[in-house]
Amino acid sequence: MLLAGADWGARVAGDTVFPGGPLDELAHLLTTVVVFWALGSRACRRFLVPAMIASVAIDLDHVPGRFGVDWLTAGTPRPYSHSVLVVAAVLGLAALWPRRRDLLLGVAIGLAIHFWRDMGEGGAGVSLLWPVSYRAYQYPHGAYVAVIALFVVIDAARCVFGGRAMSEPVGAAPVPTPRGGRLRVAAQPRLEPGYNATCEPIITVRSAGSLN
Ligand SMILES: [Zn+2]
């Protein structure tokens, strides 16, 4: 709902710095979150934070244009850094820098999601293939809405089915009673359901203690 509101508000506000800018960035941020929730908790843990930051920070390249400096955007509707070239550069860096691979892959995915949304905003499009071509690519806003709706359905299914799995009873561990010995009560695992920020169930296993 928040994404739908931000997306609608950004379209109504158009190319204004305020409130168009903040609403557009909020829509970019939420688009990234909705996509990652559908991909699952593992992808979220590895890539979500850098992807969220990149999906908003990339629009800082619009700042020079706002001050009338067009050296980043001459001949293209959006700055040159809105292109596949930048994603490829980040992926190349990820290949060369294994210790920061997840961070850089997250940045690359966040940029890709941002460009995908920009192309569906219904504006002038994105010159994805700069500097090979200055042609701007775009697609209908309805297609963006439809794909986001699909991701929301996947997110909801993850929540519902994840929650249902948690409600199933868990069998207690058998209590060993050795002959001639005292009754031993084995440590019984206690499962405590919960949900993390990605709406995926978390199971916390705690020992209930033991008597010897
Ligand atoms: Zn953008």
Q: How is the topology of this model organized?
A:
Layout: H1 2-13, H2 20-39, H3 41-57, H4 63-66, H5 84-96, H6 101-119, H7 141-166, E1 189-195, E2 201-207
Antiparallel strand pairs: 1-2
Helix pairs in contact: 1-2, 2-3, 2-6, 2-7, 3-6, 5-6
The chain binds zinc ion.
The biggest beta sheet, please? 2 strands, antiparallel
What is the residue-mean pLDDT, rounded to a whole number?
83
In the sheet with the most strands, the strands line up as 1-2
What is the ordering of alpha helices and beta strands?
HHHHHHHEE
Span of the ends, CA to CA: 55 Å
Question: What this model shows, in words?
Answer:
The chain folds into 2 domains: 2-161, no CATH class; 171-207, no CATH class. It contains 7 helices and 2 strands, in the order αααααααββ. With 212 residues, it is mainly alpha-helical. α3 (41-57) packs across α6 (101-119). A two-stranded antiparallel ribbon has the order 1-2. The chain has helices at residues 2-13, 20-39, 41-57, 63-66, 84-96, 101-119, 141-166; strands at residues 189-195, 201-207. Zinc ion is lined by residues 58-59, 78, 82, 114, 118.
